[in-house]
Design a protein that fits this description.
The chain is an alpha+beta fold and 139 residues long. It is built from three helices and seven strands, in the order H-E-E-H-E-E-E-E-H-E.
């Protein structure tokens, strides 16, 4: 009987560790108004398409893109979440051959911790985050 209780306690402890571990890995979002600094560059023809601030209440990069009509963002749902497919009327090419829309940040905590920016809906944003979106044929 004592072995069953020990086994049950061990299973419960393992479940608790998994739940707490997954919650710790889940991106922390920040509610409320924020200003996100955005630069959009077409690396293929060398032009800067946009540079400015976006005011938003969104908690993720995807939400900010969705709520910023001046960026004319288009996204499509994939197995990996929503993917950015167009900005400012510039559509990316075939997923396997490009060109593609890529983005990075030098000050977003999640991007810095991971060494890359995750999918748009997995990237929480904070006031004064800076994102650079690049239309490129190389990565």
């Amino acid at each position: 009987m004592k072995k069953k209780w020990i086994a049950a306690a061990a299973i419960l402890a393992a479940i608790l560790v998994c739940v707490l571990g997954f919650n710790a890995l889940k991106p922390k979002t920040v509610a409320g108004a924020k200003t996100i600094n955005v630069t959009v560059v077409n690396e293929i023809d060398g032009t800067e398409l946009f540079s400015g601030s976006i005011k938003t209440d969104a908690e993720t990069l995807g939400g900010m893109l969705e709520g910023a009509p001046e960026l004319k963002a288009k996204m499509e749902t994939s197995t990996y979440g929503r993917l950015l497919t167009a900005l400012l009327d510039v559509e990316q090419g075939d997923m396997s051959t490009g060109p593609w829309w890529l983005y990075e940040s030098e000050n977003n905590e999640t991007c810095q911790a991971a060494g890359f920016c995750p999918a748009v809906d997995e990237t929480p944003i904070q006031d004064q985050d800076q994102f650079t979106f690049k239309f490129t044929d190389s990565y």
